[in-house]
Amino acid sequence: MKTEDLQVLLKVAELHSITAAANQLDISSSAASVALKRLEQQLGTQLFVRTTRKIRLSPEGERFLPLCQQAVDLLQQGVMRISEKQQDINGEVKMAMSSEMGRNLMRVLLNDIMNEHEDLSLRLQVSDSRVDFYRDGVDVALRAMTKSAVQELNMYGFKICNIPHFICASPSYIENHGEPTTPEELANHNALLYKLYELTHDGWDLYKGEGTEKFKVKVKSNRAVNDGDIVRRWCVDGVGIAKKSVIDIAEDLLAGRLQRIMPVYHIPLTEMWLVLPSRQLITPAIRLIRDELKVKINQIRNVLLDNNMISKEEWPLDE
């Protein structure tokens, strides 16, 4: 199979349009159609159901899509590793990130990278406070922000992914206190709150349906902390309900330590960016960290999708 054909499949599945996918990939619509037909012939099955008005994945296409995404990610990762000489992944990376990402996902990911690249060294600043690149001597930071914020701050950045959030609680909390099903009921439960710069995040915005019905819930709490990982740990301890990034609680969800509650209500997506104050600070090591992180988060997404813990609509792939 051609990598280009797989990329066409992924883009058509994302945009539900051969024409739109072709435009983004800078190829003709006929070339995109030929690529899909070639894949279907090789697989011996129909990947899309086509009508005069729209195109959608067939059941076989739904099953094949995550495998296709993994294959493309691995191929891109392999091309990158071959094209960059081993000795180019070296030097010192001075990086900042939140306490939760630093203790968990990024700690493991950076360990794996440094095990393969012994000439690479790391200076890590882990804090939920906003880093100052010049004062703190940091070259690159992993932040939850928007593209417009990156531009307004005159920084250069790579978008890593969209970030969904869940309202969650431990099985023990639900057993002892019950499970809220509406915003009104949620207001009567103990919320575990994140506090930063004297601002306590005790107003939760929830949406229902297509986002037209909005609820702003003022939650009550007997605990607040300036460390997101402690909020997660408190939630696992069963002392309250939390609003958390799906990325941060994925392992807890899969292990049954936490459960999603109020699934008919959703929280607006945020974005994760890798940002730098200057394009000149981009090194092969930073590109490698970026690419490995995108692969890892996509793996998390696929596992949660396979276990029916989130839908594709709730966690859309980055464009």
Description:
- The chain is an alpha+beta fold and 319 residues long.
- The protein contains 12 helices and 16 strands.
- The protein has a 5-stranded mixed β-sheet. A 3-stranded antiparallel β-sheet has the order 13-7-14. A 3-stranded mixed β-sheet has the order 9-8-12.
- A hairpin with a 2-residue loop joins strand 8 and strand 9.
- Helix 2 crosses helix 3, helix 4 packs antiparallel against helix 12 and helix 6 packs across helix 12.
- The relative contact order is 0.14.
- The mean pLDDT is 89.
Task: Tag the structure with descriptive keywords.
globular, five-stranded mixed β-sheet, three-stranded antiparallel β-sheet, 319 residues
What's the pLDDT, averaged over the residues?
Answer: 89
* Biggest pleated-sheet summary: 5 strands, mixed
Strand order of the largest sheet: 4-3-5-16-6
Task: Please provide the ordered H/E string of secondary-structure elements.
Answer: HHHEEHEHHEEHEEHHEEEEEHEHEEEH
Low-confidence runs of at least 5 consecutive residues? none
State the shape. globular
Report the structural category. alpha+beta
Percent helix, as a range, is: 40-55%
Kindly report how far apart the N and C termini lie: 23 Å
Number of helices: 12
Percent of sequence in beta strands:
25-35%
| Backbone CA Rg | 22 Å
What is the count of β-strands? 16
Compact summary:
The protein has 319 residues and is of the alpha+beta class. It is 43% helix and 25% strand. A five-stranded mixed sheet has the order 4-3-5-16-6. It has a three-stranded antiparallel sheet with strand order 13-7-14. Strands 9-8-12 form a three-stranded mixed sheet.
